[in-house]
Each structure stands twice: as C-alpha cells, then as structure tokens.
Write a structure and sequence with these properties.
CATH architecture: 6 Propeller
Largest sheet: 4 strands, antiparallel
CATH superfamily: TolB, C-terminal domain
Distance between the termini: 87 Å
CATH topology: Neuraminidase
Shape: globular
Oligomer: single chain
Mean pLDDT: 92
Order of helices and strands: HHEEEEEEEEEEEEEEEEEEEEEEEEEEEE
Length: about 400
C-alpha cells in the first residue's frame, strides 16, 4: 500500500510538471517572437536623419560588443565571439578599417575595455584583466588577471567596467536570473574598487549601487562626472512592462530590483507595499524590452550644434515581445544632464517589416573623427554614421 501511495504521488508530480510545462509553452508562444533572433545576418539598410550618412567601417568580426577609442585615436573592439580585443586602424583615411589587428586573445568573452593610465582594462565574464603593450608594437605583452570571482555567469554573463573621475574602478554585473533574491551582493549591482594602477589585484571592494537588474552600459558624463547607466528590466510582465531605463547612479542608492522595477512597477512576486517609495528614479524611461546596451554622450565636433552633448543609446532589441521592438540607435536631447525632449529614433533599419532582423546594435561610440560608430554583434559589423559635408 505504501509503495502504491509513493507511485501515485510520483505520477501526480510528473503530471503537475507536464501541465506546468505545457502552460509555460503556450504562454511563451504568446509572448515570444524569435524571428528577429534566428533570421540571417546581413548588411542592414540603415535610415538616419537628413544630413547624415552610413557606411560599413569594419566587417568579419564575431559578436563584437563594446567599442573604445585608444590613445592613438584608433577604434578598439571587444570581439567577444573570438575571445579577443582587436584594433581597427584606418591608416589611409578612407573611413574604413584597413585591418583587424589583434591586441590580445585568449580572453573569456570580453565585453568592454577602457584605456587608463598606460594600460587596457578589459571586462571578462569572471572579472577584469589588464593588458599592457610594453614595446608599443600594437600587441599586448602582458595579461594580468586583477579579479576572477564573478562566477557563475548565470542568466547575464557580460561584465562592464568604467573609471570614476577619482580613479576608482566600477564593475557592473547583471542578475543570475530574471527575478530572484541574489546570494552574491555584487550581482544586479555595481561594485567599486580602489584604483588598480600598479596593483596586481583589485582591492577595496565596496558595493556602489544595488537594485540594477542588468546595467550593461556605463558612461561617465563629460561635464559632471556622474555615472549614467542603461538598465534592462525584467521579462514576462507583458509587452509593455516594465519600461527600460537610464539612471544617473548615485553611490549607496538602491534602484529597486527585484521588488520594484523602473521606479514605479511593483513586482508581482517580490513586491510589497512601499517597495517603490525609496528607490532611485530613472532619468529616462523607454519602451519595454528594447534592451538598451551601450550609451555615449556626443562630444565630437562633426555633428550639427543641436546634437552637441546629447545622449545616444544602442538598442539590442527584444526577444520576449509579440511585436518586436528595439534594434536601433536612439537619441536623447540633453541640456547638460537634463533631458529636454523625448527619446527619438536616430538610426533604424536593423529590424525589417516582416519582424526579421539583419543585425543587433550593441554599442555606440564617438570616434576621433567625430563620427558615431555602432557595433552589431549579430552581423559582425561596425557601422560608421557621419554628418555629410
């Protein structure tokens, strides 16, 4: 009799799991449109405002993520699919990369890098690696692992770093899940460390800000020194909740996740009365599931005056929305640190009318020539957007 009870109990548990799996499947079918993700990558037909033009600056990359300008004025890219950092020099001035020159390889999913006081600092899945080109030949002669404790990767494996004006290093690490209580306080958070210059490991670890589910893009405002971040909101609350956000992050602040999203949206599982009362509020709110990643302030002199100081954001694009959204670069007009207009499309065309996509923008960076450079990790391209003479 006891064996029968155990058998019936086991069969009942299996039945519940099967019913739950079927329910999730049909729910997901209503919420997910995979067409933009599985469609073929190719050169996108990019549309930009009058007075601007677009060209391919580089191709042949594999999953390029963030872009940085080196002290030599050359673009450097985290070629994540190839586990390397590469330089894209344009020595003949034809506005196209002459070659893909490897600065360093053998890195684990490099996501972004910053040149700081004589060295490149690279964010990899497990932490931070420092690269030094000691003889100036364009190839790193040394790789020093400064920290390797950001494991396991979880749902969000990318890491992003930035330097504060005081030299402290910031690391952003997304959550291990869609929504949950994290065990590691550094997840769904930004953590700061003492200046790594001259050190063989990172010290002075402090949690800088919490409640940021996946703050992929970090940028320091060129005038105020404030930290601006893009944050990707949770999934499975419908097509339009919660809004994607940009925050001006203040040290010691909590931005709500997992109990409150986008400053106003209570989580149905982890929310509670008053959960949104004390959290930091976004400076910009955007369409849910756009997946904002890289962001940059326009500091060049090649764009018209009305673009000076404005914020540009790359939208990687949705995967869990019935009608796909994102897959573009947007502009936020600013007056100093204050938005003075709504979010507006600047470069579109990666998403087709049949909901397939040619590519997925990741980062947007101002080059030494004043053009905007956009990485596309689906197509393996770097696009150059420039003001026509």
């Amino acid at each position: 009799m006891q064996r029968k009870r155990l058998l019936y109990g086991l069969l009942g548990l299996i039945g519940i799991c099967m019913v739950t799996a079927v329910a999730i499947y049909f729910y997901a079918r209503q919420r997910i449109n995979f067409a933009p993700l599985i469609s073929d990558a190719e050169v996108a037909n990019i549309t930009v405002p009058d007075g601007f033009a677009v060209q391919i600056f580089a191709d042949g990359l594999r999953g390029p993520r963030f872009i940085a300008v080196g002290p030599d004025g050359v673009l450097y890219v985290a070629d994540r699919g190839n586990d390397r950092i590469v330089a894209l020099p344009d020595t003949n001035g034809d506005d196209q990369a002459d070659e893909i020159r490897v600065l360093a390889d053998g890195l684990n999913n490099p996501h972004n890098m910053i040149y700081h006081e004589g060295a490149w600092y690279v964010a990899v899945t497990e932490g931070v690696v420092r690269l030094v080109d000691e003889d100036g030949d364009g190839t790193a002669d040394s790789q020093t692992t400064l920290i390797d404790t950001y494991l396991p990767p979880g749902q969000h494996s990318s890491r992003t770093i930035a330097f504060l004006p005081n030299g402290r290093l910031l690391i952003s690490a997304g959550s291990t899940c869609n929504v949950c209580e994290e065990e590691d306080p550094r997840r769904a958070a930004i953590t700061s460390y003492d200046s790594p210059v001259g050190q063989d490991q990172l010290t002075g670890e402090q949690v800088y800000a919490t409640g940021l589910r996946n703050a992929v893009g970090l940028a320091i405002h060129p005038e105020t020194g404030q930290l601006w971040v893009t944050n990707n909101g949770r999934d499975l609350l419908g097509d339009d909740l919660p809004p994607e956000t940009v925050y001006i992050v203040e040290e010691g602040s909590d931005y709500g996740w997992p109990s409150c999203h986008s400053g106003t949206v209570l989580d149905p599982e982890f929310g509670f009365a008053g959960a949104c009362e004390a959290v930091g509020q976004p400076i910009v709110s955007m369409q849910a599931h756009s997946a904002p990643l890289g962001l940059t302030f326009y500091t060049g002199d090649a764009f018209p005056p009305e673009y000076q100081g404005d914020l540009f954001i790359a939208f990687h694009g949705s995967w869990n929305r019935r009608v796909p959204t994102g897959y573009k670069v947007v502009r936020v007009p600013l007056d100093g640190s204050s938005p003075i207009g709504p979010v507006e499309d600047f470069a579109t065309g990666w998403l087709n009318s049949d909901t397939t996509s040619n590519g997925r923008p990741v980062d947007v960076t101002v080059g030494a020539d004043g053009a905007l450079y956009v990485s596309d990790d689906k197509g393996g391209f770097i696009y150059r957007i420039y003001a026509e003479p």
